[in-house]
Known about the structure:
Blueprint: E1 7-11, E2 14-18, H1 34-44, H2 50-57, H3 64-68, H4 75-79, E3 82-85, E4 94-100, E5 106-113, E6 118-125, E7 127-132, E8 137-142, E9 150-159, E10 162-172, E11 181-189, E12 194-197, E13 207-209, E14 215-217, E15 220-224, E16 229-237, E17 243-252, E18 255-262, E19 266-268
Parallel strand pairs: 10-18
Antiparallel strand pairs: 1-2, 3-4, 4-5, 5-6, 7-8, 8-9, 9-10, 11-16, 11-19, 12-15, 12-18, 13-14, 16-17, 17-18
Amino acid sequence: MKKILQFFLILLANLQIVKAQSETDELSKYLLDQQAVETKLSELETKFPFAAKKSILLTLGRQEYYNKQLEGEYKESYASHYYFIDLNKDGILDIVYNSADGADAPIVMIWIGTGNNYQRVIRQPGLLRFWNLEKGNFLIYEWAWMEEVEAKLHLYRLNGKTMGKSETVLLHSATLLNFPLEEISDFTVLNDNYNLRYSPNVLNEPCEEYPDGTNYCGNQYLTLKKGTTGTAIAKSTDETGRVWWLAKIPITSNKSRVGWLSSRFVEKK
């Protein structure tokens, strides 16, 4: 039976559909934009007056710089990015932080309540884009940093009072993901130097050398070796009639890469 997997990824403030497999299969349906995430977190959280919230946040052991944010002109706005939610359904409130952290880049932090204090179980650059409290799944989107072209989707699992990363999916930061999705086929690449691209069309110019020394041409993302295996998880046809697959290619047991691949010189399994 085919599994239809959908996420909504924010690109230019619009939700777009993206599919993934493996561990990410269990993420349910939606990858939300930042405004939707904040709205849903706010709906879930237990509300406290600012003074009560501040007194709890000061016990988290954060550096003095961050504690001072609770004293300044925008203290209530800063505190609003800490959400008090019972994540593991043990009757004790936990804390989720999901925002830029002072002068730092956006970051997700989660503290699990023990009844006596709070234990931080995650500090991951990026922003929360999806969660499923019933299954303990949390998906964080990390943008490509300065000299990088790859963005990352990090899947974390919460089990009781412990949390660990179970999968990371790498993708070019410009990867187009707004296509109807269905599980298609496992495949093997038949040619050497086969291009993985970030959009379902052939674009080989212009060429640009990135700070890491890599020369990227058009929409080329990576070149694949003959014998590379993966799974096609979406399909699109360009104006020439060429069929493209959104391919998920395993790197390790808990890391994979996603991009667009022409289906001409691949063999279905």
